[in-house]
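question for whoever is on the cluster today: can someone run the full assembly for these? two chains, 556 residues total. i dont have access anymore since they changed the login thing
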Amino acid sequence: MLRGLKSKITDQVQMETSQSDDEFAIRIEHVCKWFGDLLVLRDVSLNIKRNEFVCVVGPSGSGKTTLLRMLNGLTEIDAGRIVVDDVEVHNPRRDMAMVFQQFDLFPWKTIEKNIAFPLELAKMNKSDIKERVAWAVKLVGLEGFEKRYPSQLSGGMRQRVGLARALVVRPKVLLLDEPFGAVDAQTRETLQEELLGIWTELRQTAVFITHSIDEAITLADRIVVMSARPGRIVGILDVEIPRPRTVESVRKSPLYPELREQVRGLIGGREEAHE
Amino acid sequence: MSSSFDVGGPSALEIEEIGRIVIEKRTALLKKEKMTRIGYRLLSFVIIAAAWQYYGSRTMEILFSPLTKVFKDMFSMFAHDQLASALMVSVETFLIGLSVGTAIGITLGMLMGVFRNFDALVGIYIFALYATPMVTLVPLLTIWFGFGKMAQSLITILFVIFPVSINVYNGVRNVDKSLLEVGQSFCANRRQIWGHIVLPGSVPFIVTGVSQGVAMGLVGMFIAEISTALSGLGAVLTAQSNAYHTSKVLGIILIIMVLGVVFRTLMRLVERKVAPWFGQP
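^ ran it for u. tokens below:
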């Protein structure tokens, strides 16, 4: 009851402050995190602009997923703070939506119902839900699969459902936790291509975690490079490859090999972490 | 557009036709496999029945009876209404036990699974009772509640509660943590987490629990009928075995087996209805 009230107040505050023309959608200020007595994130600060696509790359154990979970309010922030749209993050919020690494669809819900899940939680009325779900289904190209169950779909298609479930919320901030890490290389490229298309259409703030340098260059406006434990930011690179992009146009860009080298150098000459 | 490797292949229409044939063949094969399984089932049936008949007709009547005599006696018992009314009484006790036991079992299991403090409060006693052979409580229950329908139902209920509640408890505890997190991430409140995630996520365990409940319920029903006021099938069984009417005893055992199978099959049907995703290919 109290929690509901609190979130209502939070919504109110957001509505009142969203007019402010602050150029940053997300401010991460001096964030630290310990797991037990192990320091996993050390003094991480980062500002992300409105409608900016940021990729965070780093080896396993750099705390990048932890950082994203903190953004989503799923993991407690031990020190420092994160402010999204002028409201400090403490709990999950309806203006942010996450795409999960292992898809994490509900096996007992049809594709349609999986995508409708966040809207049903928000108690949106049925006809609006139907409309929104149809929109999201179309956006990720899942028409005709609405009544199927996740177990009947391939990995790539399952993650399309995961993406649609987040997009259906029309979040101000889209969070993606290595969303294409669990699919094969070819599907991965297809999904990157589709995400590029979708993002060109929607233009919303996105934070994308990956350990693939190629993926980061393909998708990002800015790449944030993190070091291994304790995770901290070791460099931020602008990706000035013009949009609209395709996987191919990025590979052919003269900036591509250069960026690749730079990111590698920052990570410490190490190969990308293996999956 | 067409490159050298796809020259002369089938047209889209032809592929569709081929597809139809392939699917038809596959369906036919699946059907054949199913028929084969049914065939084996019938075969085993015939073999057991023949062996039973053979052994039964060669041994002393007090030890075993041929199948034909078992059925004949079964029908004569039905004809003299020794069986039908007893069966009704037993099924009634069993159904009361199963439904009340399942309801209490599911509630207990859910509460224990979700509320850590409730688990701390009662969990250990539920597990202790689960580990206790229920038969040992029967004499006590007859002292407390007498020998009537009430006591019999209570005994059956007790047999059902524990397997159900333990299974449901495990189900709730084993709900995928990452799915709970998805709920949390999309701002689900407590009730929504229950309805959308915990409850459907533990359906397989609930089904297993209730299946075990069916089996234990039958045991409970019989023990209740034999150890309290003799009634129902338990009474018939006791009377016939005391009189060394072996064929009739065998007949009653057969009826109980059929009863168990019928309830298990019903459970399957219910499961397919409420959880169509479960056991999907």
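summary bc i know u wont read the tokens: The CA atoms of residues 105 and 165 of chain B lie 4 Å apart. Chain B touches chain A through 23 residues (CB under 8 Å).
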